[in-house]
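Figure 2 data, in text form.
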Amino acid sequence: MKLQHYLGGLEGLGPVSTETRVFVETWETRIFGIHTAMMALSSQLSLPPTPSNFTTVWTWADLRKGAESLNPFDYFKFRYYEKWLGGISGYFIDKGYITAEELDALTEEYYRNPSKSLPAVGDAAIDNRVVQYLVEGDSPKRDTNVSFDFAVGDLVSIKDVPSIEHSRLPGFLRNKSGTVETVYDGAYVYLCDTGTDGIGAAMPVYCIRFEPADLWPGNTEKNFSLYADLYSHYVETPAAASA
């Protein structure tokens, strides 16, 4: 996760929001519905065709990638579903479904007339696809043979990989050392490519145990450990880290 998305171990960032409602405003439910429909209609799924004009790939990973690519100041300024809206809107523009000018014009139109009805749409085949996706989901596990470089009990170091838009490596684990707790069976993808960060093809995933005193010296409670599931691309031997 980019710095603005995962703030573990940082202090002095102001009060923590205690909002517990899933949806604060009605429009947020629509954003959630749009995202869910996009995932259900994503082209990488092996499901029967529908009348939808949505023909590209969209996953949870793409949503996170889009939200975290926001300017950090905008990221902190916007609420949760506003970040979703930014990521989804940017995706539709990037993929050619709508132009930025068309989106701006429609936005201004609804600002001028907030009571204007949205277009009436709906198709049973699409509705059924969404329900099917909610039941079955989309597993990141792949039937691919991979080699495992580490075993339970191995001491490992965590890389400090470059990340442009999105990373699955928390900042506070970079350049730290831990112990392999679990070697997960099989190979896993992230459902979208993270570029220079290095997550793309299916690879092993390890659960690594860290001692908080090593992560935040002199500023932790005692008698507990921190566990993180990490893609193998982020994990290396201590010798490789010091080379």
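Caption note: The chain has a mean pLDDT of 88.
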